[in-house]
Amino acid sequence: MDVTQLKTQRKSLRTSFTDCVNKIDAELTKEIPDVKQLSILKSQIGDKFLRLETLQIEITDLIFKGDDAENVYKEDFHSPEIYRDQYHELKTKIENIMDKPTGLPETRVREKRTFKLRKIELKRFNGDAKEYLPNSKAARVT
User: Fold this and answer.
1) How many C-beta neighbours within 10 Å does residue 57 have?
2) Which pLDDT does position 67 carry in this prediction?
3) Burial annotation 114-125 (CB, 10 A radius, 16+ → b, else e)
């Protein structure tokens, strides 16, 4: 196959990959993401990434067979790395959400609790030790 044909295929796969990334981002921005939907999107983006990887390997092989391979490879090297980084970042985010035990958002866990408790009233000392300290020696003496 020709390099331009493979690059055209790669372009359409990248578009599909980007659409899936946008769907995942939309799901992750929800207050409570749907774990089932994230699981489906994770498998979809994994499939797209694998196809992109194999296509990139084919393109790289054809580039190295051609003339001026080093310059063409340098130009073509950066963009696949961006897609690889995006894939691994989203995969990790999804796995972290799926591993949460309750599925509650972190903001609810960190909410400050308030309790209604009785006020404690301390006795004021009026000068009589018997009233202030009922179990003391002063109370027993009299």
Assistant:
1) 11
2) 72
3) eeeeeeeeeeee
Q: What average pLDDT does this structure show over 9-29?
A: 93
Q: How many CA atoms lie within 13 A of 111 on its CB side?
A: 8
Is the pTM here over 0.85, yes or no? no
What is the residue whose two structure tokens read 């939907």?
37
Fill in the amino acid letter for 100: K
With the CA atoms of 26, 28, 30 and 32 taken in that order, what torsion angle do they form, in degrees rounded to the nearest 10?
A: 150
Place of tokens 């694998």: 50
DSSP 103-114: ---HHHHTPPP-
Q: Which residue has the higher pLDDT, 68 or 16?
A: 16
Q: Residue 83 and residue 100: Cα distance in Å, rounded?
A: 26
Tokens linked to 130: 């018997």
Count of positions (residues) in the chain? 142
Measured CA to CA, the distance from residue 30 to residue 102 in angstroms comes to 16
